[in-house]
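Reviewers asked in the last cycle whether our approach scales beyond single polypeptides. To address this, we selected a multi-component target totalling 542 residues and predicted its structure end to end. The input consisted of the following lines:
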Amino acid sequence: MIGAHRRFTPLQRLLHWLMAACILAMLFIGVGMVSTVMPKYLTLVAIHKPLGIAILALALIRLAVRLRYGAPPLPADLPEPMKLAAVGSHYALYALMIAMPLLGWGMLSAAAYPVVLFGGWHLPAILPQSDSLHTLLWDAHFYLAFAFFALILLHIAAALFHALVRRDGVFETMASAAIYDEVAPAEQGRHAA
Amino acid sequence: MTAPHQSLPFGSLALIAAFVVAVAAAFAYTAGWFSPQRLTPGKLVDAFAPPSGAALGHRRNHAKGICFTGAFEANGAGSELSQAPVFVRGQYPVLGRFNLGTANPNAADATVRVRGLGLRISTPDGQQWRSAMINAPVFPVSTPQIFYELLRAEGSKEANAVATFAAANPEFAPFGDWAKNGPWTGSYAEERYNSLNSFVFVDGSGAEHVVRWSLLPAAQPVAVSTDELAKRGPNFLEQEIAQRVAGAPQRWTMVVTVANPGDPTADPTKAWPADRRSVEVGTLVAQQVEAEPGGPCRDINFDPTVLPSGMRTSDDPFPAARSAAYAKSYDLRTAEAKDYPRTTTGARP
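The resulting structure, written as structure tokens, was:
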């Protein structure tokens, strides 16, 4: 880990907001597509699959970046249960970002569907055909999607709580558009202390 | 750092709550939870079920069937319509399923009007062309919503529900006429199977052709009365096709028909004029028949929107609805696999 950043690195912030848009779109597309028989069903499915694979790739990059650069420390005065919730929910978010696309890919594989991305471009099956595996993965993909969405709502609520109620700088570690992680003079003293 | 609060920040907390509730509500709306009238795949699939409930572990429609394997022998002519690899001259492995258009997997063969053929053709590059065709020359209705209404009429306890539906929907007449007056045959091998829905083929130059396709039997169809068919036993179609294919491979010519501009491509109740250009693209050969329990077709979803590059869906609204409903049916029946009688008489013939 490199020092104690005030903010996430620009790359981390970029990945966060890009993936935030992708994942929210993904969840809305998911619940939308399974509830309609209109022609948009096919359009939504055709977006869902490649977008899921894109999220998987981004999540793996993001995990590597996170392991390399770490995260700004939480405020020292944050109550212990909130710290625990913050750390735990981030583990869960990373796990879901990686697991959900794999579950979807595995589920299609177990049903012997071709995993088509664009045109004739497709991915190999990662599991043998199996009705029991398909059911297990389908259930996991379905229920974890709602858990994922609930966790994102919690994440948003917590971020806004930091921004509007505690005003403790946590929100700004990710929300800032600044490119450089410049250290304010007032804080230099604090870091040195 | 943390600003000390004089009082509880109700305004901020309310703002946060309102935001989270708004996002959650948008999600619920997208999921259709505020739209009970929305036609969902689940509703469509449930509408097939008889009053006694769906046959667990089975397809929710076309529940009775038998698997076959074989080959598609492309003659190369299809390449002028579509760049799909399946039309390049050659032989490609086929997995298929002869089936009956009923939600009852134990229906007597002579009681089911619609016969179908599910098809999956694979090419070495890993692409697939899946199709599910039936022997009717046209589809009963023009939109998935009206189809749902037809299913509801068929499942209705009212005596004349279907007649009332037919009277209210004149588009049903061509199908109704076929169902009532069209010939019946004694064999899956003597049926012509039609895609009914239109699709778009894209050729090597990028030009698009709206098409429908049919499988024309090599076997000569022989009309048989339903009374005579009933005497052949409840499973005569499966017994007959197993014996017939064991004796010799059975063939169909695949013919692709190209729409003229202005033809009703979005409405499967309307046949296209007989003079439309048609191209024979190859031959389907059924080489081996296998009972569905333990057979290779049971866990395959013959989703008509699984298409290779060079083919796509058209303005016909049915393939999307079928894809959504077939997926729902697949998810249900694979989860009910324990209810599927895998050990029943096996190879019935």
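Residues 55-339 of chain B form a domain with the Catalase HpII,  Chain A, domain 1 fold (CATH 2.40.180.10). We regard this as preliminary and will revisit it once experimental data from Aim 1 are available.
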